[in-house]
Design brief:
It is built from 2 helices and 2 strands; from the N terminus they run αββα. By secondary structure, the protein is mainly α. The protein has one domain. Strands 1-2 form a two-stranded antiparallel sheet. A hairpin with a 4-residue loop joins strand 1 and strand 2. The longest helix is centred in the last third of the chain and has 65 residues. The chain is elongated and about 90 Å long. 0% of the residues are buried.
């Protein structure tokens, strides 16, 4: 349900940006480092939104990659601890059996 709500908000935001861009179609002067040009404001708005989406997607993908690496390391640590626990139990079993025999013999 959470992802559906996020999807609905994203669609509403996209519609709002598209509506805002369609209303503003007048040409504007865009200054670059090496010169200037006149572009329709709709392209400037949509280009800015696209650049923001790409940047946020890259940041999100990097975060997801880092979290996957952390999960992999934690799973490896958990498996190692399981093995250690199992080995400790198997080593302790003979001592426990001997202690029970000694208690029974008394």
């Amino acid at each position: 349900m959470k992802s559906q709500g996020s999807l609905i908000l994203a669609i509403l935001f996209a519609l709002l940006v598209a509506l805002f861009a369609v209303i503003n179609v007048d040409p504007v002067k865009v200054d670059y480092f090496l010169g200037t040009a006149k572009w329709p404001l709709i392209l400037v708005i949509l280009g800015s939104v696209l650049a923001g989406v790409i940047i946020m997607g890259a940041v999100g993908a990097r975060r997801i990659y880092a979290l996957k690496r952390e999960i992999k390391a934690l799973r490896k640590e958990k498996d190692e601890l399981k093995v250690r626990n199992h080995l400790a139990k198997t080593e302790a079993e003979p001592y426990e059996k001997n202690n029970y025999r000694l208690a029974d013999e008394k």
